[in-house]
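Quick one:
INPUT:
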């Protein structure tokens, strides 16, 4: 009985880790689609840390 419970618990944990990985990959795809949505003549700037705070990515005018 103890082995069965241990097996079931490990199976549940693996399933939950898989769902987290799927969610993070979907978030990455969403961010990549943002990259493609900048207007013509603009470029996407990826998010970065500034003074200990995270700045989200944004579109800006291209430098010539």
């Amino acid at each position: 009985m103890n082995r069965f419970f241990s097996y079931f618990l490990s199976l549940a944990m693996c399933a939950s880790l898989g769902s987290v990985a799927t969610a993070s990959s979907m978030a990455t795809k969403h961010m990549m689609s943002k990259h493609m949505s900048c207007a013509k003549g603009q470029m996407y700037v990826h998010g970065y840390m500034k003074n200990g705070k995270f700045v989200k990515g944004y579109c800006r005018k291209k430098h010539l």
